[in-house]
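2024-03-11 09:14:02 DEBUG pipeline.ingest accepted 1 chain
2024-03-11 09:14:02 DEBUG pipeline.ingest length=46
2024-03-11 09:14:03 DEBUG pipeline.predict start
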Amino acid sequence: MRWRSMTETTNTVLDTAPENTFYAVGWTVSGVATLATIVAVWMFGI
């Protein structure tokens, strides 16, 4: 993160995109892992 002057134009969508992308990917991976665990327990009766 770097400091910006008041005269510099910014685009908030571009500034936050990588953080939001990592956040969404993290929740997606977590959700898929949870569903895979539930299905594995259900199918194999572990």
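2024-03-11 09:14:41 DEBUG pipeline.report The chain is about 70% helix and 0% strand.
2024-03-11 09:14:41 DEBUG pipeline.predict end
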